[in-house]
Amino acid sequence: HETPGQRAIFLKGEGPVFCAGMDLNEASQSETLADALAEALSALYLSPLITVSFIHGGAIGGGAGLMSATDFVIADPQTVIGY
User: Fold this and answer.
1) Considering only 15-19, 33-37, 51-55, which range has the smallest mean pLDDT?
2) What is the 3-class SS of the chain, one letter each residue?
3) N or C: which end of the chain has fewer CB within 10 A?
């Protein structure tokens, strides 16, 4: 949801990693969860706003996908990225 006057979306992880993705056991049992993730990534990628992700610690699986859906990535040099 966009707010009038908003020009950018910034994504930042909380804790030791940006995003470690989702539980693969849970995801394999829930088509709804996979559909929701696909919809979120698509909305982020297609947003008319500038999107920036600030990466630290790790961006693994879905976290790497989330990072890849943004226009710009600013990463700590020690960050681990894994698809």
Assistant:
1) 33-37
2) CCCCCCCEEEEECCCCCCECCCCHHHHHCCHHHHHHHHHHHHHHHHCCCEEEEEECCEEECHHHHHHHCCCEEEECCCCEEEC
3) N
